[in-house]
């Protein structure tokens, strides 16, 4: 395999091409080794508040790219188009989810000043976990990762506030420390876990009923491990009600050409 | 010495008090172990561009705090007042330096929507260099650190662009590697050097004529070592000409209560 700064044999571009042509499944496990990103786009008038919210909450909102108003091609993925290269989008009016779509071209036409934020996604480090022999239960089961709202408030910024959202991976107890060690090296894609075990302590009452994604598969001896999640801005949109926003659908990410190593410490 | 999260025996508050009462010298060497910060404040209409410029240029512009429009008390220094607690300010109109002042209360009165950015300063890690036995020539000579414009362009953001500014410390050749190692641990205050030796390669023709601060003291066997500098936004203000801006005067920083360890990796 020829590996260079534009990704492993162009697997990023290939994956985006498939998605642009209509593939709509979650992206966990796709294009391993390349950075995947969450999308939140808001009108220019709300862009400072959103950028400040991300800057003040770097664990759930590690910014990997911010596009100028109206732009749709990320420098992390030359030739990409944010309007078509994500498997699913959520459209929000005044903080209320209005619809889920798979092509956002029309959205950008009616909202030409949207400022797009790409936020690192923990799918990025899953390949590192797999390489270390740590099972990714949701991948093995062909499911989306389970995600939960917590009772932990993010630090507000201007008009934007909201609670932390986390993703959960059940990890065999003897491998939890190794999972922490591996993911700590990737602060730009959420880094080390924010919580290990004891879901109730962060306001999660029922692991089997995630707020986003699919129910988890938990094996005997697994410990639930929680990472800060890039769906957090969607909870903030619900809590803060900007007049308009468009996001990715949870689990359906933007795949860049950027090798994860770029963001490894 | 009693050390807690609010600083060593309140040395931050004591230093700010002295400055508020009129002390106007450069802050290198003051309140060792506490984070010092550069100031750039712009009208709310320019705040997104400035925040994005900082986010895209984290080496010269590592953000340690952003204040809401009109706010003047940083969470990094409870009880502080940005209008009075910096030894010197520069006032900019349309990118042109208009005046240097020591009290900015009137500025905030006439520009009530200013958004203030505090950007990490390399003075923060000087105490770590001293502890390692590395001489800080400008401190020893009682001078301000020399700073230079370079020919390296920053990544633009919206209406803001400009060239990188660096600070320079002459380091004995056998200690250069150690200086890199120590400062690399502090990415929030510019981190490792951006250039070592060969000033001409980054567009610096004459080390004895810095663009900001005082002429350097260079001993035999010293190598010039360059760190990204928080004066970079001032060069961007000159190049980009926002209608108004206020900054600190180079070398005269805002002293926080935050121990440098908070930002050590």
Describe this structure in words.
The structure is a homodimer of 265-residue chains. Chain A is α+β, with helices and mostly antiparallel strands. Chain A folds into two domains: 3-122 and 240-263, PSTPO5379-like (3-Layer(aba) Sandwich); 125-232, PSTPO5379-like domain (PSTPO5379-like fold). Chain A has seven helices and 13 strands. Chain A has helices at 11-20, 47-56, 105-110, 123-131, 137-140, 176-184, 232-240, and strands spanning 3-4, 7-8, 34-42, 63-66, 89-93, 96-101, 115-120, 147-153, 163-172, 195-196, 222-228, 244-248, 254-259. In chain A, the strands form three sheets. In chain A, strands 3, 4, 5, 6, 7, 12 and 13 form a seven-stranded antiparallel sheet that branches. A four-stranded antiparallel sheet of chain A has the order 8-9-11-10, with helices on one face. The longest helix of chain A is centred in the first third of the chain and has 10 residues, at 11-20. Chain A starts with a strand and ends in a 6-residue tail after the last strand. The model of chain A is unreliable at 1-8 (pLDDT under 50). Chains A and B meet through helix 2 of A and helix 2 of B.
């Amino acid at each position: 395999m020829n590996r260079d700064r534009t990704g492993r044999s162009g697997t990023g571009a290939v994956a985006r091409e498939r998605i642009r042509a209509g593939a709509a499944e979650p992206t966990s496990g796709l294009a391993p080794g390349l950075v995947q990103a969450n999308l939140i786009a808001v009108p220019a008038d709300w862009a400072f508040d959103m950028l400040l919210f991300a800057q003040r909450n770097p664990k759930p909102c590690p910014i990997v790219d911010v596009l100028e108003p109206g732009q749709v091609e990320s420098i992390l993925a030359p030739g990409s188009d944010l309007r078509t290269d994500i498997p699913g989008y959520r459209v929000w009016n005044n903080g209320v989810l209005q619809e889920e779509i798979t092509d956002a071209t029309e959205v950008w036409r009616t909202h030409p000043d949207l400022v797009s934020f790409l936020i690192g996604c923990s799918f990025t480090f899953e390949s590192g976990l797999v390489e270390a022999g740590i099972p990714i239960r949701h991948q093995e089961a062909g499911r989306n990762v389970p995600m939960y709202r917590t009772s932990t408030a993010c630090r507000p910024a201007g008009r934007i506030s909201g609670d932390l959202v986390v993703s959960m991976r059940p990890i065999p107890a003897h491998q939890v420390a190794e999972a922490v060690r591996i993911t700590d090296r990737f602060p730009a894609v959420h880094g080390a876990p924010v919580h290990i075990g004891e879901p109730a302590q962060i306001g999660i009452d029922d692991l089997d009923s995630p707020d986003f994604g699919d129910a988890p598969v938990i094996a005997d001896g697994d410990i639930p491990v929680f990472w800060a999640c890039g769906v957090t801005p969607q909870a903030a949109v619900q809590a803060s009600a900007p007049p308009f926003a468009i996001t990715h659908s949870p689990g359906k990410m933007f795949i860049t050409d950027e090798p994860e190593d770029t963001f490894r410490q």
